[in-house]
Amino acid sequence: MASWAALNVAGGDARASAAHERATEEAQDADNAALYEQALRCQQKQQISEAKEIYQRLLRGPSINPRLEYLCNKNLAVMQLEGRSFHEALEFFAVALALDATDVVVWCQMGATAVETGELWLARHALEEGLKVDKTYWPLVQMLAEVLNEIGDEHAYRRVADYIKAHDPHCASVRLLDKDKNRDLKLLKKAQKRLQHLHEITERGVKRREVLVDERRKELEGKMRPRRYPLVTPSWSALGKVLLEAFEENNRDEQADVVRTAVEIHVNYDEEQGMEVDAEVEVSVTEEEKTTDVSQDDGDHPPPAKRPKHKEVAKSFGALETSLSTGISDNDTQDSGIHASEVEELQPRRRKSRRNEERLREEHAAAIKKARENDLAYRLGAFLPEAIGKTTRDATPESSMRSFIS
Length: 406
Known about the structure:
The protein is mostly helical and 406 residues long.
């Protein structure tokens, strides 16, 4: 292209250089267009190698416009896809879509190529991007539904499937997939019924075990129910009879647990009975004193001076008889002598004949011996533990019984 410029005009060289560059670019674009048309003709004639070579020459050229570069990469990707070179096809598709992402067909072809390579995540991405470009390109939408179903994204699949049904109720892929889903739902319902039945059986077993445990607990409570026995009189013989009665009753009862059953012994006598016993002892002491006075009168001795009766002396004498009747001491003569001396110190001074004293001592010893032979508590005394202290041995039967029961 020729142009005229004066030699003395400033900037004439720059304008000439720019014009020359534009002429060069236009000439290069014309040459590239001619080569591209030649590659297309080779591709149509299935001359794949010649077409690939021309496309590669164009891409390696010093100057190529973006549109022609996009077309060359797309055509190379299609030829690689047809030749089942899927990984090379993905590379060319990626370059082409980086240059121009507005072609939904290219997105669909890239998704199909990614499916062939097994990269379903890449196929899903390509198909979803194509769906954004055009939602009415049904081959892409159908392929996206199939990929989502294969991946297992039920929510996304249901959304795409509903969209397809709304526009194409006769879509074969969706109908087939939904049929499988319905069959799966039936299988799930059957499995759910079996699991529910198994759960109900387990719950019945648990309830049955709870009922058995409750019945067993009530049975044990009945067997271990405390049994109460009254103790009418404060004596060892009465206590022994109560214990024997409790043992025999529990042994006869088939439902009772002899080892675990609690036995409660209630003391029913009151303080009035104890006061009556003290009164009887006091009366017996008074009668003995009268007998002693009569014997002294028979011996022509002057009667001693009258003194008031001491209630404490009578009670001490009663305690003496009861403690001796328990049989704790083995030396009868020694015990009787010791307690007799204590009683004599507490009683008023009287003039007594030796014969009368010996007679009273013999009668007292005989009474103690007879009481021991007839008393069950004395025979049970051998079973008392040796660890009983002196304080417990010297206690009265009433205090011992009350401390034992408490």
